[in-house]
Amino acid sequence: MTAFRISEAAPLLGVSDDTLRRWIDSGQLRSSRDAAGRIVVEGADLAARLRGSARGPSDPVHRASSARNRFVGIVTDVISDTVMAQVELQCGPHRVVSLMSSEAVRDLGLEVGSLATAVVKSTTVIVETPKED
């Protein structure tokens, strides 16, 4: 099983090393020691914690959808020409960029500072892992 040192796990959870240590000390997250005696957290425990805390801003559009990948954020940039536009959103720690028609940007009223939801429904998702040394 994959284990992460505190300095590796904390950024994955979006917290400081000190916060992660407090969670471990208070029993909110399990830990063990590796062969070198360092405190580590199992990857499966990190995944469970992330699944349990996967909350972002509430979705401004309440409707049923088969798309599960919804990222609520703020529009940070709009670049338009006469036909196409590039819209950038900051959704928590994630930058999401969408290409759409300029007409869609106008119809949606998208401008810097707008609240919007990026909905991703894709048949292809590429997953990468760190290269082994």
TrEMBL record:
Keyword set includes tRNA processing: no
Domain Mop: from-to ranges: 64-129
InterPro entries in UniProt: HTH_17, Mo/tungstate-bd_C_term_dom, Mop_domain, SinI_DNA-bd, Transp-assoc_OB_typ1
Keywords, sorted A to Z: Molybdenum
Single annotated GO MF: DNA binding
One GO biological process term: molybdate ion transport
UniProt name for this protein: Molybdopterin-binding protein
UniProt organism field: Paramicrobacterium agarici
Lineage: Bacteria, Bacillati, Actinomycetota, Actinomycetes, Micrococcales
